[in-house]
Design brief:
Oligomer: single chain
Strand content: 15-25%
Number of strands: 29
Strand order of the largest sheet: 15-3-2-1-4-5-6-29
Distance between the termini: 45 Å
Shape: globular
Helix content: 25-40%
């Protein structure tokens, strides 16, 4: 098949997906693919998706066509087989063993359809002691360690007030499908993969889940305002803001701006922002900063800090955020008409592919689903239809020149390295600023090789452009406009290599009123309503420990690159991929950012939020914490019978999270250990799981059973264990083989591979252009 140079159809044009998932994670995978052109058929049972009737359903299932099938009947199973026979991708999240029971397991389907990609999206993974638990967001937070890691005042693990596991599974899963589709263009065959919600949480904790020779990243907990005195929530005289002085330079500017110049020369505060070892000194600095901010209003401080060049953001509600001028400029609020509801406002596209643009789909609509004519357009480049080609990694053979750093940039290229890409990390002579974070750097740069080039010099920029000629992708997270000012922007890259894909990650977007501002994750947590929604209504906001906006940006960027690689197989051209932390604040609140008349309110947050109600919250056992997740009356009956507590009058599922009923449950659960209650509650069908403690997470039985850790020896840190493969393919695998590089460790090696002559390498090193 020849490529059509005028074809600007979306990346997954011609791809058909059968989506037999429900809830948040699986439907989000399919929706993100639909927005880049896939034709998605949503399969629901006679009872419908449990999320139906909620605001989130309308977002997570837009752009799809729907059909109701009873898979307990032969007719329903026959119709599903017909749909799968005409599909490129089949997604399901049924309880463990259900697929084999009704004849839709991956081995059976792929034997019938070798080109089919099958994605299994369970909650906990197919191995380990919790594999057969009912899918539930709170239980996933507990099992994954996210509940215990969350910032809080007390010892009891917290409940994160949005479905972080589902949203993470959605973005990582969309990337896994895109990687599989790209691999199929090279091999001619499909594959099957598993991505659990627990594993997806791991993809958002890579810089936290690192241990080296007994030293853990999450050795202690910060309060819900943040643990770095200069980088935390502060209260002005009238409202809250986030002060983002994360670097020594930003701290120096902020200290002067708020009248604390003396703190810069006080030896007790040496090492600020992140290097104050004495906890009493940290507390004192935090108290002095807090006191300084009480003397002016929030608007005054926002202007003062902006004038000083210090990152900062107001703490807003979601309703306030959607009127932000940068949000409107980025077109992140769009109109979608929903039958039975009418006009709604929903989030826009989180990632843009300029050459093959996607589009927001209509509300979920009924079929029909006519059979496709001809072969899928995504198969261009697969070669002889009868000859399959083996491939170890999905992105094997793809070369990426990586100019990014910190989390929002570097984790995207790390995900692509995990998928098998050859990632060459280009650093300044001083190195990525994230290196100063110690172990966290390992969690953002696995799988890469390091080349040091001085891009401030013309010779360095010329060398970079030479590298681009043999690359497939360039990634950066510079502030908007920096690449163009250096003469290495997209047009310059494309002039040297028309097939190059350039992925640009920014804080606020490539253009717009805030495009020039620096961006860090908590600034967008604050602006977007995340902190307000997690905190006490009308009271103190709460900083989320997981850098959700950072990670969502990185994972969305990786997904965008893989989508662009698929598109390039059809068009023969490169692409410009754009995403931002501003947009990703919507990505991790997709179901919350939908507005219409009569919309029900989101569940309230709370200080050290324990859960939703008395039967859906965390409790202390004698040796740890237990998450209870009762969602049906039968669960309530079984729990009360198991622990010997009287069921209260009325609907037990509406009793408050703190009250007499909750106190009675707490008193009983405290009398025995976790093992006792797990046996008792599981025997009676009560959804419950222990909260995996941060201190024990690296040795947890379930996490180890699902292969979520990677062990290696580091020349500086010694024995290291960090988060590992999150996607489990049947035939391919993730490439978890290379530790994060030392600074400039591979400069000569990588330049030679990219065709730079030895003499020129030596000359550039002698001149100080290359380290």
């Amino acid at each position: 098949m020849t490529t059509d140079a005028t074809d600007h159809a979306p990346a997954f044009d011609g791809v058909r997906i059968v989506d037999a998932t429900e809830g948040v994670g699986g439907p989000y995978v399919a929706m993100l693919l639909a927005e880049q052109g896939a034709d998605v058929v949503k399969v629901e049972g006679p009872g419908g998706d449990p999320l139906r009737g909620t605001p989130a359903f309308h977002v997570l299932n837009r752009g799809k066509r729907g059909v109701v099938l009873d898979l307990d009947t032969a007719g329903g199973r026959d119709e599903l087989r017909r749909l799968i026979a005409d599909a490129d991708v089949f997604l399901y999240d049924w309880p463990l063993g259900r697929d084999a029971e009704i004849g839709f397991d991956a081995a059976t389907l792929r034997a019938l359809h070798p080109r089919l990609i099958v994605g299994y999206l369970p909650a906990y993974g197919s191995d380990g002691p919790y594999a057969d638990l009912p899918a539930d967001e709170a239980l996933v937070q507990a099992v994954s360690g996210a509940a215990d890691a969350q910032f809080r005042y007390g010892a009891q693990p917290a409940f994160i007030n949005i479905p972080i596991a589902g949203y993470a599974q959605g973005v990582v899963g969309a990337g896994a499908v895109a990687a599989s589709l790209y691999a199929r263009t090279q091999t001619g065959r499909g594959d099957a993969f598993e991505l659990s919600q627990v594993a997806a949480i791991f993809a958002t904790q890579t810089v936290a889940y690192v241990r080296a020779s007994g030293v853990q990243r999450l050795a202690g907990r910060a309060g819900p305002r943040g643990g770095i005195p200069t980088y935390r929530l502060v209260q002005a005289s009238d409202d809250w803001l986030f002060a983002g002085a994360l670097t020594p330079g930003f701290w120096a500017s902020m200290a002067v701006a708020i009248g604390l110049e003396d703190c810069l020369v006080d030896p007790r505060f040496a090492g600020a922002p992140m290097g104050i070892a004495d906890m009493d000194a940290r507390r004192e600095l935090a108290e002095r900063i807090d006191e300084a901010f009480t003397h002016r209003t929030r608007d005054e401080w926002l202007q003062i800090l902006e004038d000083a060049g210090v990152p900062r953001a107001p703490v807003l509600s979601r309703e306030e955020f959607v009127h932000d001028p940068q949000v409107l400029h980025n077109e992140m609020l769009v109109d979608v008409d929903v039958p039975g509801i009418g006009a709604t406002k929903q989030m826009g596209l989180p990632v843009t592919l300029r050459d093959t643009p996607g589009r927001v789909g209509m509300a979920l609509t009924p079929g029909p689903f006519p059979a496709r004519e001809g072969e899928p357009r995504t198969d261009v480049g697969a070669g002889d239809r009868g000859a399959f080609v083996d491939r170890k990694y999905p992105l094997e053979g793809v070369t990426i020149v990586d100019l990014s750093g910190f989390i929002a940039g570097a984790n995207g290229s790390m995900m692509l390295a995990d998928m098998g890409a050859n990632v060459i990390k280009v650093e300044s002579l001083d190195g990525d600023g994230w290196r100063t974070s110690g172990l966290a750097f390992l969690g953002s740069n696995r799988g890469k090789r390091s080349v040091c080039i001085d891009l401030k010099r013309a010779e360095g920029r010329a060398l970079l452009l030479d590298m681009v000629e043999r690359a497939d992708v360039v990634m950066d997270n510079y502030r908007a406009g920096v690449m163009d000012r250096l003469g290495i922007g997209y047009e310059a890259l494309r002039a040297r290599n028309p097939r190059i894909i350039h992925c640009s990650v920014t804080g606020y977007g490539p253009t717009g009123p805030y495009a020039h501002l620096p961006g860090f994750d908590p600034l967008f947590q604050a602006r977007s309503g995340l902190m307000r929604a997690q905190g006490e209504p009308g009271g103190e906001p709460v900083y989320l420990q997981i850098s959700l906006c950072d990670y969502a940006t990185a994972l969305t960027a990786a997904y965008g690159v893989m989508a662009a690689l698929v598109a390039r197989e059809r068009t023969g051209r490169g692409n410009r991929v754009e995403t931002s932390l501003m947009n990703s604040a919507f990505t991790v609140q997709a179901g919350e950012f939908v507005f219409y008349d009569g919309r029900p309110a989101d569940p309230p947050g709370g200080r050290d939020l324990a859960g939703r109600h008395a039967l859906y919250r965390v409790y202390g056992a004698s040796d740890g914490y237990l998450r209870i997740a009762c969602t049906m009356a039968a669960h309530a009956d079984a729990l009360c019978a198991a622990i010997g507590v009287s069921l209260p009058a009325g609907d037990a599922l509406t009793h408050p999270v703190e009250g007499e009923f909750a106190s009675a449950i707490a008193e009983r659960l405290a009398t025995h250990d976790l093992a006792h209650w797990q046996r008792e509650l599981r025997a009676r069908g009560v959804p419950a799981a222990p909260c995996t403690a941060v201190a024990a997470i690296f040795d947890d039985e379930h996490l180890n059973a699902n292969g979520l850790w990677w062990d290696f020896e580091h020349p500086t840190w010694g024995a290291v264990r960090q988060s590992g493969a999150v996607v489990r393919w049947r035939e391919m695998s993730q490439q978890i083989e290379r530790r994060a590089p030392l600074l400039g460790e591979h400069s000569a090696e990588c330049l030679r591979e990219l065709g730079v002559a030895d003499a020129r390498v030596a000359e550039l090193m002698a001149a100080g252009v290359v380290r």
